[in-house]
Amino acid sequence: MAHNISDECINCGACDDSCPVNAISEAGSKRTIAADTCIDCGACVDTCPVSAISPA
After folding, report:
1. CB distance 26 to 41 below 8 Å
2. Which residues cross the membrane (predicted)?
3. For the chain, give me the number of helices (H) and strands (E)?
């Protein structure tokens, strides 16, 4: 199951490079995680400076 990015996201892009399968992309004013691509590794969770990413 994919991780979720909450509305707390400040769209800084810090999580982009941490994703080994490139499941994170910009969607308007925040980032989003493609559920069908995410491998649920959690690498993005630790890179988010505002703790906006959590397990689904």
Report:
1. no
2. none
3. 1, 4
